[in-house]
Amino acid sequence: MLSIELIRRDPDAVREALKRRGEKAPLESILSLDVQRRSLLTEAETVRAKRNQDSRELGRMPERPAHLGEGVRQAGDRLKGLEEQVKGVEAELEKELLKLPNLPLPNVPAGTDESANVVVRTWGEPPSFDFTPLPHWELGERLGIIDLARGAKLSGSRFFTLTGAGAKLQRSLISWMLDLHVQEHGYREVYLPYMVRQEVMLGSGNLPKFSDNLYHDQEDDLWLIPTAEVPLTGLHRDEILEPGTLPLYYVAHTPSFRREKAAAGKDTRGIKRVHQFDKVELYKLVAPESSQEEMEKLTRNAEEVCRRLALPYRVLQLCAGDMGFASAMSYDLEMWASGCGEWLEVSSCSNCTDFQARRSNIRFRPQAGARPQFVHTLNGSGLALPRVIIAIMESYQQPDGSIVVPEVLLPYMGQEIIGP
Question: The pTM is what?
């Protein structure tokens, strides 16, 4: 959530920053509500002070004049009415503020869509083959490790099953990635619920904007998570972290559930874009002054997964119009898929500054007794499946249709080749 103080202090700068994202924000109505709220609060404080003064005078009198007692009662009624008005205006103000995305940092490239994203660096070269490489859906069917038909039979389109070495490959990747981030990158593993309350979705920035893309259990009012970022943001909701607590590094493996309404008709073949997929998520809570440095470190942690798998990848800095709702700056990591002949996003790393912290009320004390400040939150996939599986299958495929298992996964897979 954006700070109302920031909007009040420099509405033109906020308006210009939102324009960079392609957003037309109702700042005039927000500022009008803010003026109304402050006016009501001032009036309420005046009425409260007068009522308290009259009450004290009444307390000192041996006899209570009827007119003075009636005045105190009327002041109480007026104060109650003003407080109700304040609550209504504050609720409307919060509703409008929750609709605003985060502001892009100054170093974010201009642009309204993915065509303006900037390639920051690349690593590795796409493999060359002396045969025509197959896409993963053909490889998976021939090897009997991906079953799209039975996934659709169970749950409809955009669902799939992994069997045999396919399921083991996914499990091996998850275990290896968790071990890497915990043992070498200093993250603490967390097991999380896969369903959360509405306020947790609000805190992460997924509600109210993306309600149509989320799965919702209306009876219990619980929401299936679209990413582990959501419950990780909620872990410290309404907390004040004591001095010395930051930075906090978390890593979690969860499934992710997305309705993908905005992607109708896109990437319909194979397992590139599905309603349920697994992901290892990296998450940080840090002091504001270190968030940019921590952003670079988090991105490098995600890149290390690509490097150790020896899969070519590139890093893109997203333009202002292509970033996620909560992000102030984002990098995307894309792996090369030889059979599809395209770059596939396997991670999006974002610095959300204090945006999620304000929505979730997560603060910290820099020193003992200091005034609490909002933390900065960062997140990134480390990495997301099944696109990593796609890249492995298509880049490690052999002429006979078998797949070589990447070296780092051998201790987890227990086999060097995935064959028919």
Answer: 0.92
